[in-house]
Amino acid sequence: MKTSPKVNLLLFFFFSLFSSSITAFPHFFPNVSSIPPSFLRNITTSPWNSFNNLSGCHSGQKVPGISKLKNYFHYFGYIGNTTTNFTDDFDDALESAVKNYQLNFNLNVTGELDESTVKQILKPRCGVADIVNGSSTMNTGKAASMTGHTVAHYSFFPGRPRWPSWKQNLTYAFDPRNQLSDDVKRVFANAFSRWSEWTPLTFNESSNYFTADLRIGFYAGDHGDGEEFDGVLGTLAHAFAPPRGLLHLDSDETWIINDALASGSATAMDLESVAVHEIGHLLGLGHSSVEDAIMFPTISSGLRKVELARDDVEGIQELYGTNPDNNGTTGPSFGEREMSGGHRESSVLVQFLFLAVGLAFFVL
Ligand SMILES: [Zn+2]
Ligand SMILES: [Zn+2]
Asked: What is the superkingdom listed in this entry's lineage (predicted)?
């Protein structure tokens, strides 16, 4: 039996919509106390918890689990692109990775997996790499000052991409498949306002996901851009530098949307805190070694951190200038910086899928 082209297109549309495993319905809770105990029992621990077993390890040792740690350092740019088939040997490459990591995160540079280093490694964080093609956005990319200390501050992606000056009024839209509530959308509106307050940029929600400058979606696991999410904790989100405009969040996280105090829970993540950080990437900022800065790569569960630090403001104003309506701006005063870091190359599967669905609508 032969089906008509229209039926074929309809089938394709539904296939695209429902067979795709790239979307999942995210878990939102107004506050920590509203998370049902049954839900908490269902969630697993961090994908990085096994690194606890490596505490105290140092160069020359061979310990089961080292290969997984090498994959971690490879993912975030601390071990070069040579291979992903790692051994359990604590070799020179790993020692160098540990040293650079310690430098970036303001830890004692010992090259050993001491307790404070392992503790930092375990913290949930942004999926954007700290070092790309051997050049760092953080402390390791900064020249040491006269005192021998590095000057920690903001950074940009390689080539310093930014939204062009004729495009200061940016639109954003949400992946319609996530069916986000107005409460969740308001969290993002607040997060965008943190950046528009200090710059000439404006952000307005668009109902058209296909044409918006900035596209936001929640996804689980492998979602088609080569940057897999890893379940509860671990990597929380990632975003791409201008002009790609993609902001992805891990739908497996326990997202808190309405708790100004965001009090303790081992796995609850404050959505606005993560959104403000990822919007920084959408606008062209890389990671910062300043711990108070929004662009610091890690965030602890239950922590709410939504106010731009001086470091963030100076970074974004170097790219876009000040907000003409806001006189309370701070001028850039840090002397040295690197234009480096960023995100790995990714496939265009997600965009292709949406193009196909949009085309099916248009033809029908
Ligand atoms: Zn980040
Ligand atoms: Zn993604």
From this structure: Eukaryota
pLDDT at res. 80: 85
Q: 61 CA distance to ligand 2 centroid (A)? A: 35
Q: Compute how many other C-beta atoms are within 10 angstroms of the C-beta atom of residue 75.
A: 17
Condensed to tens digits (0 to 9), the pLDDT of residues 202-257 reads: 999 999 999 999 999 999 999 999 999 999 999 999 999 999 999 999 999 999 99
Q: Could you say which ligand is closest to the alpha carbon of residue 244?
A: 2
**Interval between CA 287 and ligand 1 midpoint (Å):** 6
pTM: 0.82
CATH of 49-123, picked from 1.10.1740.110, 1.10.1740.10, 2.40.30.170, 1.10.101.10, is: 1.10.101.10
Nearest ligand for residue 274 CA: 1
Average pLDDT, the chain: 82
Q: Report how far Cα 246 is from the mean position of its chain's Cα atoms.
A: 11
Domain chopping of the chain, boundaries: 1-46+146-364, 49-123
Give distance in angstroms: CA of 346 to centre of ligand 2. Answer: 9
- What is the CA(65)–ligand 1 centre distance, in A? 26
Which ligand minimizes its atom distance to the CA of 129? Answer: 1
Please say if 278 is a catalytic residue: yes
Task: Please give the Cα distance from 324 to 78 (Å, whole number).
Answer: 40
Task: Return the bridge partners of 204, or none.
Answer: 171
Give me the architecture of the 1-46+146-364 domain, per CATH.
3-Layer(aba) Sandwich (3.40)
Ligand 1 centroid from CA 4, angstroms: 47
